[in-house]
Design a protein that fits this description.
12 helices; single chain; 320 residues; mainly alpha
């Protein structure tokens, strides 16, 4: 296992380097100028914008700029925001707790909903409960999150006036009041993301349990007199949930990318809204840092899923 882990780490280094080079080249060649406002402002001398471009090396060749950026990243220097005039690290760390709260709560909600419903649907295939749950799951992952978010706003915020549709992170309260306000403001974005992920996870759980429950060793356990609950817990779920665990690991990077749209809809001050604002303002250092972090998440959790599958399933061997 350890040798496989180190081999995958060695493979991940050139993969991330190639991804970062492609991302940097696309952003460097994209139209737009971060100092365009200065260049078009008649009150600002043209030499000021040219001096800033020279200071940040924007007129250098793309390969030279990439090597400079990669060396700075290796030292832990993520760059300087053109729009906010602060370090990129500071910007990301300011937004990260909110994003982690929304994504972590949404992932937990999806798991809590998907696992029991998926297992019960598989234990009662083609029943009324299974048909209703399957239909709702199909609807859940067929509707995009921006559409579901708009429906939530129209129903819970405008029609019923129960929940605020604009997220606030700076809540002026303490104690239980502070916790309750965070729940109120975060409930709709968490529900939109959680239900979307939970719908796909529920279908996958149902299919996995159905596949295992029909295997011969499960029938043998029943024939030997083992109770139905014991058969389900010891023989079915233990093996059926192995691929589900790996799917949960693979869903986490998708949650971060899906949060980009959800944060825009509910005005959540997280990483996703920072990415959109940076793209609109041609803030290349911030865009590059966030997209590279997303790429690192995908590579890391793919590795984590492979390792988890091999650790949970004794039939998988990484030797040789």
């Amino acid at each position: 296992m350890s040798s496989y882990f180190f081999r995958r780490l060695l493979i991940a280094i050139p993969v991330l380097a190639g991804i970062s080079l492609v991302l940097f080249t696309i952003l460097a060649l994209a139209p737009g100028d971060p100092f365009e406002e200065l260049a078009t402002n008649p009150n600002v001398p043209r030499e000021v914008a040219q001096r800033l471009r020279a200071q940040y090396g924007l007129d250098d060749p793309v390969l030279v700029r990439y090597v400079r950026w990669a060396a700075a990243m290796a030292r832990g220097e993520w760059g300087f925001s053109f729009a906010s005039r602060v370090d990129v690290t500071t910007l990301i760390l300011q937004r990260l707790p909110t994003t982690l709260f929304v994504i972590g709560s949404a992932q937990l909600l999806g798991i809590v909903i998907a696992l029991p419903i998926g297992i019960l649907s598989a234990l009662r295939p083609y029943s009324v409960f299974d048909q209703v749950a399957t239909t709702l799951a199909f609807i859940g992952f067929s509707l995009p999150t921006f559409f579901t978010g708009l429906l939530f706003i129209l129903f819970f915020s405008i029609h019923l006036d129960w929940l605020p549709f604009i997220y606030r992170a700076d809540i002026d309260a303490t104690g239980w009041r502070w916790a309750w306000e965070h729940v109120r403001y975060g409930l709709m974005p968490i529900a939109v993301l959680g239900l979307f992920q939970g719908a796909a996870l529920m279908r996958f759980t149902r299919a996995s349990v159905l596949e295992v429950i029909r295997l011969e060793y499960v029938q043998t356990a029943r024939a030997k007199g083992l109770s139905e609950s014991g058969t389900i817990l010891k023989h079915v779920l233990r093996n059926a949930l192995i691929p589900v665990v790996t799917l949960v690991a693979l869903q986490i990077p998708a949650m971060f990318t899906g949060a980009v749209i959800t944060e825009q809809i509910f005005r959540v001050p997280g990483i996703g809204s920072l990415l959109i604002a940076s793209i609109l303002s041609n803030d290349t250092p911030v865009v590059m840092a966030i997209t590279f972090v997303y790429a690192c998440l995908v590579v890391t959790f793919n590795l984590a899923a492979d390792l988890a599958y091999g650790w949970l399933d004794p039939r998988i061997s990484y030797h040789g």
